[in-house]
Structure formats: C-alpha cells, structure tokens
From TrEMBL:
Keywords per UniProt: Oxidoreductase, Signal
Name this protein carries in UniProt: peptide-methionine (R)-S-oxide reductase
GO process terms (BP): protein repair; response to oxidative stress
GO cellular component, one term: cytoplasm
GO molecular function: peptide-methionine (R)-S-oxide reductase activity
This enzyme's EC code(s): 1.8.4.12
Domain MsrB: 50-176
Organism: Litoreibacter meonggei
Amino acid sequence: MTQNAAHDLTRRGFFASTGAAALTVVSSPASASVAAGSASDFQYEVVRTIDEWYTQLGEQSYAIMREGFTEARKSSPLWEETRVGTYHCKGCDLHNYDASFKVVLDKGWVFFEHAQSDSVLTAIDGPVPEYGAMAEDAAFTEVHCRRCGSHLGHLLIIDGAMLHCINGASLDFKPEAA
Ligand SMILES: [Zn+2]
C-alpha cells in the first residue's frame, strides 16, 4: 500500500529494533527484571492498529510517521512557514513544536531549535539518504512523538547548532488567530 511512497521515499532502518524485541520474547522470565524501560515493555499512550493509522494519516504521512521514511525536500510547504502558531503531531495532536522555536533554512525540511517540553523522545536511526551531503555519517538520532511514537524527523547539527529536522508531513500547523 506504500508502493508510490516507496518510489518517492527511501526506506531507512525503522524496524531495525524488531529483532532485539524478538530476542527478548524467547529469553527466560528472569530477564524481565532487567527489561524495565526497554523497548519491549514500553507502551505509548496512543496506540492504533496499522489500518487505523493508514486511514487516519493517508499514504504519505503513514510512510513517514509509521514506517520511518523521510519526505523529499521542500515537499511540504511548512518548511518556509513563518506565521505565529503551533505545530502538532499529525498522529495524536500533541503540541510538539512552537513557531517561536522555528528556524527557516533553505534545506527543505522544518527546523526547530528545540521541542516543547515533554513532547518528543529519541532513538538511534540508520542512514537517511534524503539528506544528501548532510548524511555522510550513517548514524542519526531519530525524533518521535512522546505520546504516539510516530516518527517525526531527526536531530541534525547544522553550522554548529543542534536542530530538530522534522518532516512537514508529520505535523499539523495551527496558525494563531489574528
Ligand atoms: Zn503523536
């Protein structure tokens, strides 16, 4: 169901942790005492089935948020959005970013200096070929929503500054009422 998305987007190692989770399942019960806090026993507040996610998000946002693709640069108009307002997770509506944290860069994704407090979590991610020259190092820190676990983007160091590089297709922008 993501054939078109697969054409435009490049898969990354989003499910790389699946193997580790499977190993935990077959380990002895005694290992449960050391599993606290690991991916195998963590549950996000918002949980939906694959069908529910696909119906809610649509093809492109599903591929990015639930399968870990990265959108093509400048494919979302939010990269150059400058209005005052708030940015919310498209998966669960959690307020992840604020326009006052935003940095507009001519790289084609949505950049923020930081996230809202207690709104995102991080994980280790594989190569992101869409970043081109920025992706010389294969390891990236992924940013995902604290409430629903949806993939939002990555942490990148650009000109010496650590920024959140977020897919516009993962966000709903809510401009402040004039
Ligand atoms: Zn979310």
